[in-house]
Backbone:
């Protein structure tokens, strides 16, 4: 892969996505064997700059960098100079002056990683920007599917939930369609951006329509922190009319997988029976995440080809 930054899947070519997935699968197989030492980033440094809450994405990037041999620094925005009014660009310049090699950024504003990437020498990786993109999440979802089915092409993937505020849904739509999957979206009308039809999505008018014959069903969290309210009557009604339970899941293929980026609100977007059921791959997604982030870091660093 010949680029400095990973900002989104919208810009990536099919070949680049395939290269990341190939290397991701290699790392995942190695991690399953207990091999956690890979020297691709030896002698380099990685800064995690998270302006938003995160458990799994942050931990996953941190472990990916450490397993790849890098020195890792975690900036806690709550106690950094950002609180004194420093701009993102100035924070980036400071990190550059320390000869830092990578910045992993999560930011509530769509486009923040791009702005940073344009002004720093370090490689920038988008760990989620507003409602725009979350490329490594979609790559890990794709790796989970690719490992299980042996392919992405021809798969039917249903994504249910708060599509409007979901950067995960958007990155998945761009990535999955590039690799030849069919992406069906279902959300309450107030949470369904119609422009996504132009990006190749099939907009469905019921859960059954989205899930029927699907190879994978992905649930999304309602992003209450990004909503002003009024998009649906209550969480209870959301679960009843828009969530995924075993009855709705029975419309999918028997072999279908259930995915969710986490954190899950049990009983809202998915019932506990679905989360803990046989078809759920939610835990496997976490290992895919670590693997795919190792792949992204080493490919951006210009190391490792498989
Ligand atoms: C997602 C995110 O932050 O965009 N979570 C994640 O990265 N695992 C989805 C979410 O917060 O619901």
Residues:
């Amino acid at each position: 892969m010949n680029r400095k930054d990973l900002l989104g899947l919208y810009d990536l070519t099919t070949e680049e996505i395939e290269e990341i997935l190939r290397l991701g699968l290699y790392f995942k197989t190695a991690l399953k064997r207990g091999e956690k030492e890979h020297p691709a980033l030896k002698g380099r440094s990685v800064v995690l700059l998270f302006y938003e809450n995160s458990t799994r994405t942050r931990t996953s990037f941190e472990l990916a960098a450490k397993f790849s041999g890098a020195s890792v620094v975690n900036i806690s925005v709550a106690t950094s100079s950002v609180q004194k009014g420093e701009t993102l660009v100035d924070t980036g310049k400071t990190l550059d002056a320390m000869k830092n090699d990578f910045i992993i950024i999560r930011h509530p504003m769509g486009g923040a990683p791009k702005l940073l990437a344009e002004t720093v020498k370090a490689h920038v990786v988008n760990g989620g920007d507003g409602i725009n993109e979350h490329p490594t999440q979609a790559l890990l979802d794709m790796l989970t599917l690719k490992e299980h089915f042996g392919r992405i092409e021809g798969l039917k993937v249903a994504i249910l939930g708060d599509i409007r505020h979901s950067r995960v849904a958007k990155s998945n739509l761009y990535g999955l369609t590039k690799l030849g999957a069919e992406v069906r979206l279902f959300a309450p009308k107030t949470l369904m951006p119609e422009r996504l039809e132009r990006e190749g999505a099939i907009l469905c008018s019921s859960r059954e329509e989205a899930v029927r014959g699907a190879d994978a069903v992905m649930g999304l969290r309602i992003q209450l922190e990004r909503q002003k309210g009024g998009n649906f009557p209550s969480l209870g009604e959301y679960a009843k009319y828009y969530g995924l339970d075993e009855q709705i899941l029975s419309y999918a293929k028997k072999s279908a997988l259930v995915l969710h980026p986490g954190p899950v609100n049990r009983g809202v977007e998915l019932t506990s029976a679905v989360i803990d059921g046989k078809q759920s791959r939610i835990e496997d997604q976490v290992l895919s995440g670590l693997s795919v982030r190792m792949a992204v870091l080493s490919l951006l660093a210009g190391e490792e080809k498989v």
